[in-house]
Predict the 3D structure of the following.
Amino acid sequence: MAFEFTPDLLTGNATIDSQHRELIAAINKLLDACSKGKGRQTLNSIAKFLYDYTNKHFADEEKLQLASHYPDYVNHKKYHEGFKKVVRDIIKELDKDGPTIVMVGKVNTSIGGWFINHIKKEDVKVAAHIRSTKSQV
């Protein structure tokens, strides 16, 4: 199942929204590669890109949170750290076992599902906070 960047995922921050689009595309690419039984090298390459880009995105997002004094920064950062661990674990599993139906399910739920849910529940709050701090200046 491919994930789609729908209007309810827009945060209103061009940088964050652009990065979210890239991450969803990378998740879809990884899902597609897993479901087609691509080789471990291909899967590892896609998964590594996803991990590296996630790290960049989370760092950018956290800088915005710190600059705007986001009140739930500590918890939001914990969510990010937990997600990075999940992605690292999936990369290790892909390297060890290669593509499997179980792996497609894990990527779908543990990466794709988590990420979409995180945008809808957490990132929209961050974006609203950033907008509110800008309007007070």
